[in-house]
Amino acid sequence: MTAQANPQAGPLDFFWFIPTHGDGSYLGSEQQQRPPEFAYFKEIAQAVDRLGFPGVLLPTGQNCEDSWITASGLAALTEKLKFLVALRPGVTLPTFAARQTAALDRLSNGRLLLNVVVGGNPTELAGDGVFLPHDERYAQAQEFLTIWRALVSGQSVNFNGKYYRVDNGRLDLLPSQERPPLYFGGSSDAGQELAADLVDMYLTWGEPPAQVAEKLAAARKKAERRGRKLRFGIRLHFIVRETEEEAWRAADRLISHVTDAQIENAQARFTKEMDSVGQRRMAELHGGRRDRLVVSPNLWAGVGLVRGGAGTALVGSPEQIVERIREYQAIGIDTIIGSGYPHLEEAYRVAELLFPRLGLGTKRAQAHENIANEFAVGFHGANRLQASS
Question: Three-class SS of residue 90?
């Protein structure tokens, strides 16, 4: 839900995550694991739609269900929820992606957002038929997005570039939105140049605030040189409990089955196989060591011991986590894409413990404040009890 958190912080969007690669209570273990089934995705999507999260991210990769098809199914089962799905330059053609965009945006009544994913793991990219080196992938993405943006905006396209050629391209059926927004995360110079040119929302993984501030300042400066402004978002896990002690116990429990061998294998993959600057920065926060996981106040890197991509979590009491969120807002973050294990239960914890303190979800809470039952006796309920006594 978008709301005014306080006069200093400004509005905040708080998205959630659909675990299309599976879910569970323990990292590195099949114990209490939940397979990637559409029925479970539906449970999460409908819960977060009802709780007031404005949107969800659907990941992409060889181990994930396809984000476009999954979002198509979930859009028909939700009311307000927006879907952030992967736009993959190099893996698909810009003209085909533009037609997909228009179709899903119309099907969802304008609830589509696009997450531009350029790189990550060259081994996985090779499996998709993509063999370009790191910086050249971003050059290809520049052409891809130039064509895509023109098509979904209703323009006819003639383009002759290094990677794509289009003669008289057009869309006969346009999206519901004027143009679905582009989200993008890339920590390299090549990635930031692409963001400065063509995207709307620049995303970072959950690094300490000082590092995030430095990264955002660099991206902001590049955009300003082009006469553009970027919005900024952050991708984080959350472990919030009523007390700080409970939260840290939950964090320890989450990685209690992770072995040293699993950590070693994962870190080798992150640092040797992958050419992602953002992934390298995530790995450097802890260096694969269990004794270096608290990388900033309430910022814990335990998830990144074995999980690629977003590897940090905010851990603590609601008051502590709200304070950390305010710090990120102060440096320009206006969107959070959160997650937690398991995602269904943690969505409820975030909504119940954080939303009221962030000024989110207040209408839903006020609508039920007068209900009298075994959990609460509202004002009208109290009157009824007095009248019957």
Answer: coil
